[in-house]
Design brief:
CATH architecture of the largest domain: Beta Barrel
Structural class: mainly beta
Number of domains: 2
Shape: flat
Number of helices: 2
Strand order of the largest sheet: 1-3-4-6-5
CATH topology of the largest domain: OB fold (Dihydrolipoamide Acetyltransferase, E2P)
Order of helices and strands: EEEEHEEEEH
Helix content: under 10%
Radius of gyration: 23 Å
CATH superfamily of the largest domain: Nucleic acid-binding proteins
Number of strands: 8
Strand content: over 45%
């Protein structure tokens, strides 16, 4: 049985790369999560929970390129408690099979580089911009003529100076976007 959880903590060991049968890339590292609370005007750390975090396939490759020991991260995934025996000793370990992993932006900044779906390299296509250099909402990969006109590509009259408003749903999917979610 496994539950989905999200844990914020510090990477306590350097991510180790390994390869599973069939050439599937995997990594694992230790994660330390401590509760902090304010007592008498002082911040104190209480008990630390320790987790083994594992990631597979593309998430493993990206994490290996991005995550280092000592960094604060957010991990979400399937949680399991496993029993172990070794050398006459036994115990249990808390493990997370990561489904999502990234830096905790409360403590620093990071730069994201989207990987293209076709060749695994490069960034996402750039959004069209208006004359001020700002990205034009609703325009993506529609060409510079459409961007200058201020149209969104969703109306029959693409030369309209009024861009269409985004509906109550927030955004509309771009059919050319290779993002799998």
């Amino acid at each position: 049985m496994s539950d989905r959880i999200t844990v914020i903590g510090n990477v306590a060991s350097a991510p180790e790369r390994r390869e599973l049968p069939g050439g599937i890339p995997a990594i694992s590292f230790r994660l330390a999560s401590s509760e902090r609370r304010l007592e008498n005007g002082q911040w104190v750390d209480s008990h630390t929970n320790w987790y083994w975090v594992s990631a597979y396939r593309k998430l493993a490759e990206h994490a290996l390129d991005s995550i280092e020991k000592g960094q604060r991260v957010v991990v979400t995934g399937r949680f399991r408690v496993k029993q172990w025996e070794s050398g006459g000793k036994s115990g249990s370990s808390a493990e997370i099979d990561a489904e999502g992993l990234g830096h905790d932006l409360m403590f620093g900044t990071t730069t994201f580089h989207k990987v293209g779906a076709s060749n695994g390299q490069g960034a996402a296509p750039e959004a069209a911009t208006d004359s001020s250099g700002w990205a034009t909402p609703g325009i993506r990969d529609k060409g510079p003529d459409l961007a200058r006109a201020g149209g969104t590509g969703t109306s029959p009259d693409a030369s309209s100076a009024e861009p269409a408003l985004v509906g109550a749903g927030g955004w509309t999917a771009d059919t050319d976007d290779p993002t799998p979610f």
